[in-house]
What does this fold into?
Amino acid sequence: MVTHEKYDPNVKKKVPIPNVCKHFGIKYKNTFEFLKELNFKL
It folds into this structure.
């Protein structure tokens, strides 16, 4: 899963995608890590 959101264990209302991924054991990366892994250049 690729997202621009950040993990925050203190969130109670609008739960970010990384929190859901961590709960279900799904791997996730932020957008910049993903682009770096692909050697993407602008």
In short: The two ends are 22 Å apart (CA to CA). The chain has one domain: 2-37. Residues 2-37 form one domain. Strands lie at 2-3, 29-30.
